[in-house]
Amino acid sequence: MWRAVAVYRVASLAYAALVIAVNSDGYARPWGGWAVLAVMTAWTVYAVPAFRGGHRKGRPLLAADLAVAFGCILATAWVETASNIGHGRPTLPISWVAAAVLSWAVAGGRRAGIAAALTLGVANLLVHVVAGTTAGMGRGTFNGVVLLLLTGLVVGHVVRLALEAEARLARAVEMESATRERERLARRIHDSVLQVLAMVQRRGGELGGEAAELGRLAGEQEAALRAMIGTAAPITAAAGTADGNAAGGPGRTVDLRPLLAGHGSTSVTVSAPATQVRMPEHAAREVEAAVAAALDNVRRHCGDGARAWVLLEDDGAGAVTVSVRDDGPGMPADRLAAAAADGRLGVAQSIRGRIRDLGGSVSIVSAPGEGTEIEMTVPGPAAASAGGEARRGAVG
To answer: Where is the DUF5931 domain (predicted)?
Structure first.
């Protein structure tokens, strides 16, 4: 964009020089026209490399660019005759001044471009005021002002779209690079670590005793590692996106599936939809922590041979449900109440408390000899957002 502005600045200077050369005989002060052209030439020689360098977005340079254009326009009232101004002869720099509007639009967007255009529009009107030809201020003057405004608006808008496209391209390239690196690591892990873990699991089972326990642990780590490298990493909403939330800010969302898949093992089966289940990052981390607490209870109370199943569901209507089921011995109906009375608040705080704080609910179904199922339901992103707006409205 800055190269395009530089080309326009040079081309419009050549056109202004041609017009000044043709009209100089009719000026009230012909030498003044050449003086203005000299100023325009000197500034162009300075501005082209200056805007191309590291200072192109500096406010002092932009202000000086606009000031030079403003002064060259006002000089028309001193160089031209009042008669020529009244008859609609263009200002001395003609379209050269639009380069300042372009610079402001490229550097600051639509608002900056419009502000620069309005400033130069005032200069065009002041030429008639100083020359005393306001009665002859015709359509040409207003057309020039309107064209400057349109230039600032359109170019500023195009620049904003270009910056957004560049940011999206950078994110796409970054994601592609991350995916390639992930695939490379997955191949390396598969060719080395996973094979070793599988061999340890197999040999441990054959040897029995303490080696069998090591084999079981190796099998669990193998399953967890396979789940980790086989599931796409959570994708976050980056800064400057349509939702207006900066990456890492309150609006950041993640895919819940990889978080739960990390708990998969030879004794824990994790099932999730094929499509992403996106949630606010804090909510997703809390749900994952609640699932981890439920699986820890299975390991502690159901024995080493117990199996567990984690099922993730997204009903598409604003609710996400995660259920953790085991084939353990189950528990009596009053077990949780007795645990809370004894001060053991694992389920009450680690599971119920977390889900309650997210605005969700927990249902626990268990019977002796029939295992236990914990079902956790939390609002999805849309429902959570609507609830947040309602709460802010109530506070306001």
So the answer is: 1-170
Which of 101, 93, 88, 110 is closest to 41 using CA atoms?
93
What's the DSSP call for residue 270?
A: E
Task: Provide the 3-class DSSP secondary structure of residue 368.
Answer: coil
Q: What is the largest CA-CA distance in the chain?
A: 110
pTM: 0.48
Burial letters 148-181, b for 16+ CB under 10 A, else e: bbebbbebbeebeeeeeeeeeeebeeeeeeeeee
Q: What is the DSSP string of 287-325?
A: HHHHHHHHHHHHHHHH-TT--EEEEEEE-SSSEEEEEEE
CA distances (Å), 310 to each of 267, 268, 359, in order? 11, 7, 21
Confidence of residue 55 (pLDDT cuts 50, 70, 90): very low
Length in residues, the chain: 396
Structural contact between residues 306 and 328, judged by C-beta atoms closer than 8 angstroms: yes
DSSP 8-state class, residue 55 = T
Q: Which long-range contacts (CB under 8 A, 24 or more apart) does 88-91 make?
A: 88/136, 88/138, 88/140, 88/141, 89/23, 90/19, 90/140, 90/144, 91/124, 91/127
Residue 166 has pLDDT above 80, yes or no: yes
Judge whether 88 and 136 are in contact, CB under 8 Å: yes
Give the pLDDT band (50/70/90) at residue 368. confident
